[in-house]
Amino acid sequence: MGYREDMDTQPLARANGSLVELVGKVALVTGASSGIGLAVAEKLVAAGVRVALVARTQATLDSHVARLGSDRTHAFAVDVTDFDAVTQLPDRVTARFGRLDILVNNAGLNHRGPILHHSARALSDVITTNLTAPIVLTRAAIEKLAKGGAVVNVASLAGMIPVPHEAAYSASKAGLRAFTRSLREEFPELRIATVCPGPVDTGFFGDISQVPNLVFSQPMSSAEAVADAVLACIVGKKAEIALPSLSGKLATAGYVFPFLAAWLRPLLERRGAVAKARYAERRRAQAG
Predict the structure, then answer these.
(1) Can you say whether residue 128 is alpha, beta or left, with left for phi > 0 and alpha for psi between -120 and 50 degrees?
(2) Which domains, from first to last, does the chain contain?
(3) pLDDT in tens, 43-82
(4) Most exposed: 38, 54, 215, 246, by fewest CB within 10 Å?
């Protein structure tokens, strides 16, 4: 199974001129050590943005700073569930770079499988990382953003329609979408948006066998494609971008019409099982 470039999820390609406005701005990106967060950071740096890289592991962040340039990036080793440290982050970023214009809440956690397979604490950690932490950081940062600044929250198609055996994750991403929509109404002078990707080819999958077949029923995106959508939200006016866009429409229809979701699920799960097997085989071939 390869990647599908969904034209409706690539508005950045039609708005490259808007990237000029990013030159000299400062962004804070969580989950920036790998995957989507790192891809976002790389694209922002390429657009002339100075970026605060936030993740838990100092050594990994330092390696990215060495590669991207210490004049354009800085490492902040912070666990987003440490709310005291998170609350201080915007002040630390402005002390380092002199301003803050863009916040990208991307750090995420998922414990897949039936909830009875996980402790109550593990499930609550998913909510804390994916929902509470972005709320805390946004509250700390938003007063520092000037008119025209941006907040982009990376949610999921699972936040548009719940996925079986990902109950806590689905709940956290649905909550993040609701928070973002409400915030957008409160701060019309800012660009506030959500990006909702389906499956993304990163290390976030973990043990493939634990990923529901339904997840793999949708076309795979690359981290770079999701990052393009994030930048499109930063420079544009969209409230939400789903990747792929057709999957977003399907998720919305399934949520509005539950009977449709129930009718389609067996077909999608069969399709997903085949796609998951192909993906696992490709991963084994790459590893071997």
Answers:
(1) alpha
(2) 7-287 (3.40.50.720)
(3) 999 999 999 999 999 999 999 999 999 999 999 999 999 9
(4) 246
pLDDT for residue 175 is more than 90: yes
CA distance 101 to 97: 11
Asked if pLDDT for residue 7 goes beyond 90, the answer is no
Q: How would residue 18 be classed by pLDDT, with cut points 50, 70 and 90?
A: confident
> Could you list the active site residues?
169
Confidence of residue 284 (pLDDT cuts 50, 70, 90): confident
In degrees and rounded to multiples of 5, residue 180 shows phi and psi of -65, -45
Label residue 169 exposed, middle or buried (CB < 10 Å: 0-12, 13-18, 19+): buried
